[in-house]
Amino acid sequence: MKYSHKWRIYLGIGVIVGMTAGCGPAKNTEIVDYDSDGTIISCAEYDENGQMIKKTTYNWKGQIADIQEYDSDESESSSEEDEDYTYEYDTAGKKKSATKYGGNGLVQELLEYGSEGNLIRKTTFEYDENNKLSETDEQDYITKEATVTWFYNDDEFVSREEKIELKWDGEEWRESGDSEENSYLGADQQICSKFWSKQNETGSIFYDWSGSGEKTSEWLRKSERDQAGKMMQETEYEDGVLIRTGEFGLRSTYYNEDGSINYIEEYNSDEDIIKTEK
C-alpha cells in the first residue's frame, strides 16, 4: 500500500494525513498523532463520509497497544462502555460531546471532541453528601494542562483552582503532580490570592479580599540552574524591590529597601546557618 503524505500542524500536535489509493473504500483518510517527542500515539482511519472505521493506539515504545474497528454505518463503536454516555452531534453528524450521568442524575463525566473526532477535553465532577458540587477536574489535551477546582462553603474562600501539567506516559495522559498555579477565589469568583511555580520562577500575588480586586502585594523568586538542572542562584523580590540573593546551599544576602545590604547568612552542607554578618 502506498501513501502520499501531506504534513500539517493541528492544534500543536504533529499530524500526517494520508489518502489511501488503490485499496479499500475510496478516499479513506488516516490521521496519525504524535507526542512532543515524535513518538506515535494513535492512528485513526476514516471513510469517505468522515466516519472513523478503525483506531490503533500505541504504547510508549511505539508498539501497538490496542486496535478498535467501527461499523462505518454507525457513528459510535459497538463497545458496551459507550452505552453509559449520552452523545451530542453537530449539524454534520460528527460527535461533539459525550456525557455520563450518575445514579443521582448528576453529571459525572463530560468528554469533548474536536473536528477530527479526537478527544480534546475531559472533565470529571464530584459531589458532597448533599449532592452539591465539591470538585471538578478538567483535562485539556490541547494545552496539556489540567485544572482542578475545589468548592468551599465558608466565609473566606468560595473555591480554589490548581493548574497541573499533563504528561503522556505511553498509554494515556496523566497529571504530573507538579502544580503550576493555584488561585483562591472569594465571593463572585473574585481572586483573593494566586500562587504559581514554573521553570525557574515561583511567586504569589495577594489581592484585596473586600471585593475591590486590587492587588495588595506580590512576591517573586527567580532561579538559575546549571546544565544538569541543579539550582545555583536565587533572587527574590517583593513588590518589585530586591530583598534577597542567594548562592544555593552556601549563602544568602538580604537587602534593605534602599538596596543596601542588611545582613548575610552562610550555611553548612545541611543548610543550617553557621554564620551571620551585618
3D structure, described in words:
This protein has no helices and 22 strands. It has strands at residues 3-10, 13-20, 29-34, 40-46, 52-58, 64-69, 85-89, 95-101, 107-113, 119-127, 133-140, 145-151, 159-168, 173-185, 191-198, 201-207, 215-225, 231-238, 241-247, 251-255, 261-267, 273-277. Strands 7-8-9-10-11-12-13-14-15-16-17-18-19-20-21-22 form a 16-stranded antiparallel beta sheet, with no helix packed on it. The chain is extended and about 80 Å long. The relative contact order is 0.06. Mean pLDDT is 76; it is low at 1-26 and 72-81.
Q: What portion of residues is helical?
A: under 10%
List the helices and strands in order: EEEEEEEEEEEEEEEEEEEEEE
Record field, number of beta strands: 22
Measured between the Cα atoms of the first and last residue, the distance is: 77 Å
Radius of gyration based on Cα positions: 26 Å
Q: Tell me, what's the shape?
A: extended
Stretches where pLDDT falls below 50 for ≥5 residues? 1-26, 72-81
Q: How much β-strand is present in the residues?
A: over 45%
Name the strands of the widest sheet in spatial order.
7-8-9-10-11-12-13-14-15-16-17-18-19-20-21-22
Largest sheet: 16 strands, antiparallel
Mean pLDDT: 76
H/I helix tally: 0
Class from helix and strand fractions: mainly beta
